[in-house]
């Protein structure tokens, strides 16, 4: 909506489930603890501001008793995921919010402590995924159904098969389609799940409501004028 183009989410492709999820991590010996007060005056790396990472952190800080003024004393540092391990290792940041795809790689590069998981803060949820323009949804329903059904099938395959089976299919596709350079990184870093918490990436009101509440607390949206169902549809998902 930031571009002025009406869109709706149609299927989720990552999130937090019983297998995996994002987490706040710190270098071993950092002195940071599960008490959010220990983060006051510290720097925390996030992949971007105003999104999932900041929402989870703000929610955790507030639940832990930090005032708004104290939360402002925690500096969030936008940092590309590829640079996070180095920043932690060199003490350029004190902690980092690490996504599903980063945890394995960062844990191998730096000795870390997991401070809190996002599921500890907001429970299991579906995060981002695919969104389509409203006008496309209206006029391309057959294509919408094929696209979303295919993505949903891939989501279910990933979550119902072990890591080795998924990698066998995925890396073959990468090589066959000219993306062989990415195989090594995928085999090394992917932990075996995208964290999707529902069949086929079906979206639920709760997946949206947690972020609407946070955006409302910041004054970015008026929660009384927007419902979770306004921004997504499961119309094309066979899992729904």
UniProtKB/TrEMBL annotation:
- The lineage's top-level taxon is Bacteria
Q: Does the keyword Kinase apply?
A: no
Localization, UniProt: Periplasm
What SUPFAM superfamilies does the record tag this protein with? Periplasmic binding protein-like II
Return any one Pfam family short name. NMT1
Its signal peptide is: none
Q: Where are the transmembrane segments?
A: none
Query: Domain named SsuA/THI5-like: which ranges?
Result: 2-160
Which Gene3D superfamilies does UniProt cross-reference here? Periplasmic binding protein-like II (3.40.190.10)
Q: Which UniProt keywords apply?
A: Signal
PANTHER family per UniProt = ALIPHATIC SULFONATES-BINDING PROTEIN-RELATED (PTHR30024), TAURINE-BINDING PERIPLASMIC PROTEIN (PTHR30024:SF47)
Which family is annotated? Answer: Belongs to the bacterial solute-binding protein SsuA/TauA family.
The protein here is known as: SsuA/THI5-like domain-containing protein
User: Which source organism does the UniProt entry give?
Assistant: Nocardioides phosphati
